[in-house]
Every structure is written in C-alpha cells, then in structure tokens.
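Duplicate of #3305? Posting structure anyway:
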C-alpha cells in the first residue's frame, strides 16, 4: 500500500467522522493498492459526489505529509450542516445550502505544478483555469509565467487562502480567484485547464471540457479521465521519494471506443 492509498483511507475515515454530524450519509471507500483500485474506491465515493449536498471525498496524495492544510482542514472548513433558526420569512422560503467540495483540499507539490505547466506548454499568451484551486498555488505559478490565470473553488477558506497567495506574490493583475462550483463553469475561454480532483470528477467534467477550443490543453495531477486517451503521461519524483503522475490531453478530446 503506497502513501497515496494510506492517505485515501485516512481521509475517508476523517470524512466519516465529519459525516456523523451531518444528515447525509458519508461516502465509503475501500483501501486500494494500485491506481486502478484507487479509481474503484473513487467510483464508490463518486456516487456521493454526484449529489451536491453530500459530503466531499478525499483524494489520495502521493508523497505528501499529512498536514493541517490538507485532509484535516477540509472537514474543519466544511460549511455548517444546520441551517440558521427559521425566521418568519425563512420558514416558508427554501434555504439554499452552500455547495460543498466534491473533494478535499490536498496541495499539488511545487515540482508537480511546474511539470503540469510545462506539459501544458503554458506561455504568456494563454488563459489558464485551475478547477478547484485550493490555496491558489497553480494560479500563482501560471500568473508568474505572464499568462492570465483563474482559480475556482467552492470552499470559502480556500478562496481566502488563494487571494492571500495571489497578493503575497504580487500577481493580482494577472490572477483572479472566484468562488464558484467548477461544474457550472463555461470553459470555452480557457487555453489550459489544470486539475487535481478525482478520476470520477475528471469524467464528470468531460461535457465541459468538450467545449474547449481546439488546441487547448488539460493537465491532471495523478488522475486520468476514463474513456479519454491522454497525449502524454509523465512521472514526477516527489521531494520525499513518492512519485506523481501528470496526464496531458489536447482538445478535441480523443474519446476511446465504447466496449460492450
Ligand atoms: C485536491 S485540491 C487541489 C488544489 C489545487 N488545484 C492544487 O492542485 O494544489 C481540490 C480542490 O477542489 C475544491 N473543490 C472540490 N469540489 C469543488 C467544486 N465542485 N467546485 C469548485 N471547487 C471544488 C476543493 O475545495 C479543493 O480545494
């Protein structure tokens, strides 16, 4: 069992605890020993991800120490479960619950960020979208290459951290952070889309990714997109010895033939 698999189990356990406070059933995921079985675990949890009000699920990072900014903080920053006490008007009006993350925050290591931007051949002419931007590290790195970079996340804590990161690095003129559900985004203006989500979430994004301009690039940290053939798959050595995989696809997507 690799570090990614161990993290997968720990993160799912953490969400199981958080889920007890919720009226939603927590996702269940199985321990896995290969990337394929990680996808299997994801697909079990993925049915929960398809329902907007269900708790987010954990990814299994390779080579990452377990810190407060990863698995731990996701449940801490999850929106409250109980709506405010009803008032005269709220008793009759439907209460819209904030969208909860479909996957927790786990940062992509800097060397993997660099490989993602390199594989996507990002230049200053590009518009880069990071879907689920976390602390904004990919947005900041892309903006430092001179392009326009946009980061989207549903977690208010991540939005705050991303905005602070953008300000700290002085790239506010090229980087924009927005609190939005990535599954509602129009991606047609992006030249490059970066992902570190889950295999099932990559697949769920296919209808939006199919609207990318021809020649646009998609790069994903660690997770493939079942049914779509990547142009390149590269391995990156992590700082503490664990490997990371980066996938590259180019629009229009090369869909694999469906097998019966
Ligand atoms: C694994 S982290 C990746 C962060 C960053 N892209 C990176 O690679 O360092 C995934 C992020 O996606 C966000 N997220 C999950 N579901 C989302 C959704 N439906 N819309 C927007 N953001 C979402 C989480 O809050 C989290 O910050």
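Output from current build:
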């Amino acid at each position: 069992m690799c570090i990614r698999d161990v993290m997968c189990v720990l993160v799912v356990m953490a969400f199981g605890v958080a889920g007890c406070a919720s009226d939603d059933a927590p996702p269940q995921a199985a321990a896995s020993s290969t990337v394929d079985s990680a996808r299997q675990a994801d697909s079990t949890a993925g049915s929960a991800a398809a329902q907007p009000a269900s708790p987010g699920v954990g990814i299994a990072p390779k080579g990452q120490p377990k810190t407060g900014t990863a698995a731990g903080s996701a449940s801490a920053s999850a929106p409250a479960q109980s709506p405010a006490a009803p008032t005269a008007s709220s008793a009759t009006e439907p209460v819209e619950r904030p969208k909860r993350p479909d996957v927790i925050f786990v940062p992509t290591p800097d060397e993997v960020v660099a490989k993602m931007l390199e594989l996507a051949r990002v230049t200053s002419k590009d518009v880069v979208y990071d879907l689920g931007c976390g602390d904004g590290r990919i947005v900041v790195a892309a903006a430092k290459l001179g392009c326009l970079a946009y980061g989207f996340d549903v977690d208010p804590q991540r939005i705050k951290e991303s905005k602070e990161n953008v300000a700290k690095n002085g790239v506010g003129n090229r980087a924009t952070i927005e609190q939005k559900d990535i599954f509602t985004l129009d991606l047609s203006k992006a030249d490059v889309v970066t992902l570190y989500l889950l295999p099932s979430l990559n697949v769920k994004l296919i209808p939006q990714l199919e609207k990318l301009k021809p020649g646009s690039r998609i790069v994903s940290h660690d997770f493939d997109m079942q049914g779509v053939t990547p142009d390149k798959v590269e391995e990156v050595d992590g700082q503490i010895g664990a490997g990371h995989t980066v996938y590259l696809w180019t629009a229009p997507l090369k869909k694999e033939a469906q097998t019966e």
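Confirmed duplicate; merging threads. The domain at 110-250 is CATH 3.40.50.150 (Rossmann fold). The CA atoms of residues 193 and 228 lie 15 Å apart.
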